[in-house]
Every structure is written in structure tokens, then in C-alpha cells.
Amino acid sequence: MGIHYNAYHEPLDYILKQGGSGLPRWPCGASKAARPGCGSQRGAGAGRGSDAAQLEKSGLAAQRRLSCGVVSAMERDAIRIHPQDNVAVALRPLAEGEAVSVDGQAVRIQEEIPFGHKVALTDLADGAMVVKYGAQIGHTTQAVPSGAWLHSHNLKTNLEGLLDYQYAPAAPRQPEPGNGADTFLGYCRPDGRVGTRNELWIIPTVSCVNRTVSRMAEEARRQGIQAGDGIFAFPHNAGCSQLGDDFETTQKLLRNLVKHPNAGGVLLVSLGCENNDLDHFLPVLGDYDRRRIRTLVTQDMEGDEIEAGLSLMREIAAVMAEDRREECPASRLVLGFKCGGSDAFSGITANPLCGRIAERVTDLGGTAVLTEVPEMFGAETQLMNRADSVDTFQKIVHMINSFKEYYIRYDQPIYENPSPGNKRGGITTLEEKSLGCIQKGGHAVVTDTLEMGQVCCKPGLNLMTGPGNDSVSITNLLASQAQVLLFTTGRGNPLGTAVPTIKIASNSALFHRKPNWMDFNAGAVLERGSMDEPARELWQLVLDVASGRVSTRNEENNDREIMLFKDGVIL
User: Fold this and answer.
1) Which CATH number characterizes residue 289's domain?
2) So what's the pLDDT on residue 421?
3) What is the spatial distance between Cα 177 and Cα 335, in angstroms, rounded to a whole number?
4) Does a structural domain hold residue 178?
5) Nearest CA to 16 among 55, 73, 67?
6) What is the DSSP letter of 56?
7) Rounded to 5 degrees, what are φ and ψ at 334?
8) pTM of the predicted model as reported, rounded to 2 decimal places
9) For the chain, what is the domain count?
């Protein structure tokens, strides 16, 4: 099988030991005011060799512009994340020859180092282990002097092959109880679930009618048909000529969308001749409310199928008009966590901040869902050791190894995940990316794993199988019945799905550069020197979004997409 690999055991406690406020995380009577301050108001370096050439002067100048405003209160040049780290992260572009101080240690910069990239804090021999987050993130491929730039030209992953795992349960964290004030206004459905929106969704059974459903939604809006919080169509890439597991996955994902609690009504539109026609899909759908879920087979329609769809939507809308928001405890929330094009700051600000939210919602009896299995590779033991039982540990091992075998089956490298954007943002190896990514789960106990198309049924932190692909992973989270998504990004991404998608910028530069995309500025963690207040603000934003008091940028821009996972042959 391979080697035993054990990641570090204290993933979050290192954050901002210097400059933290020391306040309790969730004091009683925390403010429920609308999003105040820079943490809540909405409003790139390169590698060498095969990755990219060393930054030119003009590139460094651009980096300086991008980094402007990332650090204010703390006034640091670079940050060492964990006391055991032998690298620091540049909080601004560092120029050759300048002297910087890192935790009281003087470091002479040997070469220009881009914003967000790693600087060596000590002389490293060829083959030396590089430590970040208190864990090994790879090894040097040449001797690296103190003050030099560490990236793809001189740093390589340690990961290879399949791994053996041993259950070493971590001491469970003590939940922080609520005081009854953590509530939101949701739509209570007859099956016991709660929606954060009451929308009419038009869902095709097959991609052949994608434009048909889009035209239906456009025409409904043009004619002023009112249906709860809006009418939206969700074209996708599947349903025709699929076989085997792919076909089953498509059906499960679409079933869960049709029955999602944010959908107060659904118009299910079929072509009529597809593999996933209604004769094959409705048995998978099972029992459903025929007042709220209506079907239309376009090939069977005489004349205009658009008008027929509009007529059905008017009938659904009349039923939805009876729905009202009710106060619900936060334990009814299912939050999905998604990491976008991560930069070096994602693991310092945005993802640990999301970790606080995951802890909060699970402490209150709710559910958090993490996916993107390839972005767990290298840090998976952290999640395994937080399993609530041996059975859950074994399920995590199966999820991880199954996805690695998926790569092997297609003769693809397992550990080459960091994208060009990740690398420009300062991430070099998969270990480095994963150690940052898993922090979205905080210290929460892992209670279950989910397959694609499986609905969450166990409160706590759930891990869902699926790729890192943004469009696919947000759809998987949607299908798990998540009512709100938290999507962290250090590079920026306008993507959203059928449920409110809160975009969290890992750095202030991105937040101010793309105010039309971003909902929350996690760069405030560095600016304020504390995670406590930004965490409270983000949690309040989650409750406000869930209650419909605040809309997200993806909702305002109508950036709502789904993409179904496909892995196999098609006819």
C-alpha cells in the first residue's frame, strides 16, 4: 500500500497567536446587527522553470498594487503560521536585499518574493523537509538559503502512491453551547426540512431541453409571474445516452434537486426520448407533492410547450403563495463549504474562519458538509482522527482511497492538484493546499461520509465524495440538501449555485477589486489581528442570508448553475 503518513494534530490553534484579542469565540449576547465593519461589508506571483518565469519588475509592481491594504493593523512583512514552520508567508512583495523581521527573527531577503509566497527562514539543505502549518508540505530539490523564495522551482511534494492509515482519535473538542439566540427565518416543509428560500425551479431531465427551460424562466419573468422568491431554470450537461453508475448518479442528483427544501415548487421538463425520461426518473423520485411538483414532456405537447410550461408554473405559484417564513433554530441549518481558487491566504484567513462557522453550526446541532476529496489528500489524517467512531474512520478511508483509485484507473497523477492560479497565489504542493483547505471544517467532529447524490441525515461534520471542480462540487453540496454555501476564494470567482452562495475573499485586495463578486472580507482577520469578531460577523451574515434579510452576490447577479458529475461511457 505505501507509507504511513500522519499530518499535524493542531490545525487551527496557531492562527494569530500574536495580536489576538483573547475574547471568547461566542460570547453570550453577541450582536445580531447587520454586517458592520470591513469584515462583513461587501462592497499573483509566479514560479520558475516549467511553471513560469521569475517575476519581472513590472510584475512585482503589480503584486505591490494587489497587496495594498492586506495588512494594516498588524504591520508585518511576513507571517509564520506555526511555531515549527521553517517558512513564512509574504504579506507584501519582498524586495531583494531588504531585511524583514518574522516573529523577532531578522531575515535578509535574497531575491524578489511575490505577495503570498513562501520565504525560507533558515538555510535548507537539498532534500530538507519544508514545514508550514506545523506539518511537512514537501522537500527541497536544491539547497535553499535563508531569505530565499520557495516555490515550484525548488520545492516538491512528498506524496506518492496509496497510503496506509491508522485510527488515532484526537481528543474531541468541547462544544460551545448557544443561548437560544441562534435562529433564522426559514420555510418549514411538510417533510420536516427547512428552506432558506422559496423559489420555483425549472429542472430538465436531459440537456436537450436546456434552452427550453431557460426560455420558460425568461418568459415567466417577462410576463410578471410571481412565485415566492423567484423563478429559475437549471440547465445541466446530462440525462441523455448515459449508462451505469453515471446514469444512477445523474438521477440521484436530480432527485435531490427536485426535493430540495429551497424549492417551494418545481416544474420538471422532459424531452421524452432520453434515457432519463419520466418513466425511468419518477420511480427514483419516489413520492412527491403533485401540487408543487409538476411534469411536462415537450415531445408530447401539441403546439407551444413554452406556454404549457407557463400555465403549469402559474398553478405551482398559487400553491407557493401560502408559504411563510417561521423562526427556526440554527440546528436546522445544513451549510456547505467550498474552497475556490485558493491562494496562500485561504489557509490563514478564509478557511479557518469557515472552520469557526462549521464548529458553531455543529455545536448547535446542525450540519456542515465538506467535499473536494482531492483537496484533502495530504491532510486526510486530520479528518480521519476526528472521526466519531472506528466505523466513521473506515468510511473516510474508503472515500479517500476510492478517489485515489479513480485517478489511478485513468492513469493520472494523484498528487498534482494545485492549479496554475493556486501557484500564482503562492501554493506549491498538494500538502500545502490540503492543509489549508481542510480548515473549513475547523475542529468539528466528523460524523459521516456521503456519496454523490446522498442526502445528509446525520448532524455534525459530513465529508462528501467528489472532485475539486468548482461547478461539480457546488452541485454536489446542493444535492446533499445544503441550504447555504460558504465559498472561499483567494483569486476570485463569480460562480454560484441554486442556493445562496456566500463568497468569502481570503484577502482584502480581492475583496476591494471584485466587490460585485464578493460578500465577505476575510482579510479583516489580518487587519484586525483577531479572528473572533470576523467570525461573529460571518456567522451573523449566514443567519441573515438564511433568513432572506440579505441576498448574496450570486443571487443578485443571477449566477446560478449546476453541473452533474460524469465518469464513464456514453452511447
Assistant:
1) 3.40.50
2) 86
3) 18
4) no
5) 73
6) P
7) -120, 110
8) 0.88
9) 3
